[in-house]
Please model this.
Amino acid sequence: MLKSYFDKLSKTTIFLLTILNCKPNYNNPFDGANGLGIHFGLLASVGSQATITVKIGDTEYKNGDTYTFNVTKSNYDNPLDILILNNTNINLNLTGAEKVTLESENNSNFLVAQPGKTTIIPGGSTFFILYFNNNTFSEKNAKINIPNDDLSNPNYSLKVIGKIIDPKNSFIAIGNLNTSRQYHKSILLQNGKVLIIGGYNSSYLSSVELYDPSSGTFRSTGSMGIARSYHTATLLQNGKVLITGGNGSPSSAELYDPNTGTFSSTGSMGTGKSYHTATLLQNGKVLITGGNGSPSSAELYDPNTGTFSSTGSMGIARSYHTATLLQNGKVLITGANPAELYDPNTGTFSSTGNMETVRSGHTATLLQNGRVLVVGGRYYNNSYYLLSAELYELSTGKFTVTGSMGKERGEHTATLLQDGKVLIIGGNCDIPNADIYDPSTGVFSKTENLGKIRSYHNSTLLQDGKVLITGGFCSFNGILSSAEIYYP
Model:
């Protein structure tokens, strides 16, 4: 038997359902022989009422909530999209002369671009745009009002608190890659965009993305012919990008053309490689050294002919090493001892000084004074990470110890900043901050914390002096899609 009544206070209909059972069941006291039933209370909303909610990013905000945000520049240049949602089964109508209004101490700090719809159908949405302008680092607030025909909340309000923050020496999240990835490569193109290539995410990736600093967005571009990880990517003098080797040590190579956004095959290496190096020489050719597959061999790629040819072999087999172009045109190879120099004029390798500590998975960065900063890595048998750093002096061919980092790092990145300092990022899953090396003092100092702790990521110096950090991995975050910008 079903009975119902309407509750005016809650504006709901309450149903009472009685199930009669004429057969006794003495094991269940709720089933009586005299028709005693079980009562179920069912609630159903009725009336011409819809409930309004707004959504910013992935979070929904109810009437009376507060949304706080920090930006590094005027939001006139970086507007905020705010969705108005109707999650009910009847129409929601916006009733004000202006669908969205603002109350603030100074309305010039906030501007609204009105939504395009007056009526939002069940399950539908519309959006408006909030602009924030503040030339000081002080906090500003406003209240957003949305008049509507929701009987319980006819004037939805959301408090917004905005602040321009000083980003100096800090990391700011900028969104996500289209695909989470580690072991990828990123290259600054001549047009100022960043090409993000391959990597690994539960399987090896052939996908490629472009980051546009002017819009702060990532978009997909052409895919490589094969999936690649542990590969190299080198910007050629003609603006194209050479990609070589990768997982499984393939001998194939490809060229990316920024003008067409496509990849094409080029000549194959003499031997397949992974964990190798590829260094652009002053003559426009590319030196390929070592790596799994053929750890002591070296080859030259000639962009004019699109072919690879053998050059002199290294004295020591190397993998997971570094190759750094020096100011005199030679290339410094570091990893196992002794270090070596490649001379493009003779096509030969020769020994140079020994590092103070043998290492792999380290970084080697050419400083503006001509020295090379060698940082971190793993000790030669991979037994532990290193916090030490050393400098290579070309004039003497010797390595000397310089200041140590605050924490051991390996599989990190090192980026030469426009002021001559070096930014060291990531490497272990317990280092939230980055280090800055100052060549004038030989000392490392800490930066603010990253948004995400990461290793096996990439860092790329942008044309405006900022640094783009993409992807990577950490055990408690998994493979990352996040990206952030470092502001020097």
About this structure: The chain has a mean pLDDT of 87. The chain has no helices and 46 strands. Residues 52-164 form a domain with the Immunoglobulin-like fold (CATH 2.60.40.10). The first strand starts at residue 2 and ends at 7.
